[in-house]
Amino acid sequence: MNKYLVIGNPIDHSLSPKLHNYWIKKNNLNAIYEKKFAEEKDLKKLCDDVREGKIEGFNVTVPFKEKIIKHLDNYTDTANAIRAVNTVYRKYVDGEYIVMGDNTDVYGFEQSCPLRNYSKRGASALIIGAGGASKAIILGLCNLNVRHFAITNRTRENAKNLMTQITKPESYKGHFVYEWCKDEGIMSKPDIIVNCTSLGLKEEDKIPLDFSKYKKKFFTKKVIFYDLIYNPEETNFLINAKKIGQQAINGKMMFLYQAQKSFFIWHGIKPEIDQETISVLND
Ligand code: ATR
Question: If you compute the radius of gyration of the chain from its CA atoms, what whole number of angstroms results?
Fold first, then answer.
């Protein structure tokens, strides 16, 4: 039986096994997907196990998406552009097996983001947070024609460093790093605001930005408020977006699409994302 894993620390909360095992069963595959608590010292052995065929591949979650890279033989352009990997797999190249890394979070975000249906060129985005997740979102937004970025992060230095770690595509025009939740970020008139921080995981968490006072000035058109968090389903950030009549989207579809691409990489099958699949995550 082919074995797949999701590794992280913590890992208990991960819904990936539920989803992948559902698709494995639906497609009659002889495989199993498990979660595994890992420490940094385990990463090399896990990659060796993929190379040797003891496991077929694994997903990588916090805090190893960057740390895994040095144990891989190669990685895709997407993973290289943001120096972060969430999917590891084996590939046969020039007579030998190598361990590859890809980042399907970028695809997951692009597929789930309403900007992909906009014809507007040169949109702008406000990014809240500057951790690993922000990098995938910024690259995804570049691919969706966003040209200008405003970034705000509790630790301003981290935001500045982050932008040096991303290989930006040619379409990218520039960014500005704002002080944590100062209003200037809103004044950049973003078409989309993405919460990439972990603020919102606890129901009482609040991002200290008051959007309501700008309702008349900056939120006359529909602005997309996108929160990567999907549990809880509606963070305060999204509740406040709805209060001022804006479009609110949580991270559930991104999660499903990134998993869909990982599944395709491993099994060569693009599993369906239908209502039943979505409800698997709710059970
Ligand atoms: P991930 O890989 O999921 O992005 P991460 O790299 O740990 O996780 O990043 C977490 C992000 O949430 C960072 O932007 C972090 O801000 P700092 O760079 O200042 O640490 C942000 N974050 C976490 N807790 C926060 C809090 N209580 N208030 C504001 N920002 C917070």
Answer: 19
Map residue 180 onto helix, strand or coil.
coil
The type of residue at 23 is W
With b for 16 or more beta-carbon neighbours within 10 A and e for fewer, the 244-254 pattern comes to bebebbbbbbb
- Measured by CA distance, the residue closest to atom 2 of ligand 1 is 132
How is residue 179 annotated by DSSP?
Answer: P
Tokens of 217: 């000035």
Q: In the numeric block, which tokens belong to residue 190?
A: 């973003």
Q: How far apart are CA 267 and CA 33, in angstroms?
A: 12
pLDDT along the chain (283 residues), means of 10: 97 95 98 98 98 98 96 98 97 97 98 89 92 95 94 96 91 90 83 96 91 77 94 95 95 98 98 96 84
Cis-peptide into 271, omega within 30 deg = no
Gap from CA of 153 to ligand 1 centroid (Å): 8
Q: Comparing C-alpha atoms, which of 6, 38, 1, 36 is closest to residue 20?
A: 6
Tokens 């702008």, residue located = 124
How do 123-128 and 87-93 pair as beta strands?
unpaired
In the annotation, is 65 catalytic? Answer: yes
Q: How far apart are the first and last CA of the chain?
A: 26
| Contact criterion met (CB below 8 Å) for 19 and 259 | yes
Q: How many Cβ atoms sit within 10 Å of the Cβ of residue 139?
A: 24
Tell me, using a 6 A CB cutoff, whether residue 251 lines ligand 1.
Answer: no
